[in-house]
Design goal:
The protein is α+β, with helices and mostly antiparallel strands. It is built from eleven helices and nine strands. Helix 9 (188-198) links the parallel strand 7 and strand 8. Helix 6 packs across helix 10. The chain is elongated. It starts with 7 loop residues before the first helix and ends in a 10-residue tail after the last helix. 43% of the residues are buried. The model has no long low-confidence stretch (mean pLDDT 98). Bound molecules: Dihydroxyacetone and zinc ion.
Length: 269
């Protein structure tokens, strides 16, 4: 058996949580990540005997049998690197997604993130759009969060502002950013609402709370949030100043052609 702590999915998860903490996106126990694992890869390091079974509190037929590496509830991203087995867990969903068998981790008796419903439902939604999707990531980046206090939350308006803040934005997230109004977190309701928003974009802002990103690997998903957060930072640097220049829609169309991307239907003139 290989050592699970050196499996690529584990080292990537440790590096990512550490890096997100360093970016200031995951204060205290803020933020959570779920990574879909390949069963064959997990079997190289685990004998797959369930340690205990957890109730998920929802049903997700599409996820039955699927295995995820997930950050733990109440756990701090800053601590993951020092005690991965306490702060992370590997679970296999069974019984139509209503149960999760713990295969490794949460070794202090813990369980997966309180945002597990939003994560799992978002995986279902993104898999339908993009079968290569493996990651759902949630965090609290300050500039995006701040922007939800001062900017119109209309998705088209919010997206267009971010696109105008850095040339790369429309290339990195041509589908734009969807926005949920403030809702109570940790519930199935916000999970369902987030997953619905994930049908049309890989980024979903939770107003006055944070952001969700989805992607094919941890690096790419991190980069997606990083790009949106950079744009929000620039917005906050200029929002109170007279706007003299911008990236025009005509220039956005040049970017679409140059980088082979298609902006969200109806978002450009
Ligand atoms: O506590 O970020 O949304 C973790 C969270 C809840
Ligand atoms: Zn949060």
């Amino acid at each position: 058996m290989k050592d699970i702590l050196t499996a690529p999915f584990m080292t990537e998860m440790i590096r990512t949580t550490t890096n997100m903490y360093a970016h200031g996106w995951d204060e205290r126990n803020g933020g959570n990540i779920s990574l879909l694992l390949d069963e064959a890869e997990v079997k190289e390091s685990l004998d797959m005997t369930p340690i205990r079974t957890l109730e998920t509190g929802f049903e997700a037929l599409e996820l039955s049998g699927k295995i995820f590496l997930v950050t733990g509830t109440g756990k701090y991203f800053k601590n993951v690197q020092y005690a991965p087995d306490v702060n992370l867990g590997i679970v296999r969903l069974t019984e139509n997604g209503t149960k999760a068998e713990l295969l490794w981790g949460y070794s202090d008796g813990g369980r997966f993130t309180s945002e597990f419903p939003a994560h799992m439902m978002s995986h279902v939604a993104r898999m339908k759009v993009d079968p290569s999707n493996r990651v759902v990531m949630h965090c609290h980046p300050a500039n995006l969060l701040a922007m939800t206090y001062v900017h119109d939350l209309d998705e088209k308006a919010f997206t267009r502002t971010l696109w105008q803040m850095c040339t790369e934005c429309i290339v990195v997230f041509p589908d734009g950013v969807n926005v949920l109004p403030w809702m109570l977190c940790g519930t199935n309701e916000i999970g369902i609402a987030t997953a619905k928003k994930m049908e049309t974009a890989r980024l979903v802002v939770w107003a006055q709370h944070g952001i969700y990103g989805a992607g094919k690997d941890l690096d790419e998903t991190f980069g997606l949030i990083e790009t949106a957060e950079k744009a929000a930072e620039i917005y906050l640097k200029i929002a109170h100043l007279p706007l003299v220049n911008t990236i025009t829609d005509e220039q956005m169309h040049l970017l679409e052609a140059r980088f082979g991307v298609k902006a969200r239907e109806g978002y450009l003139n």
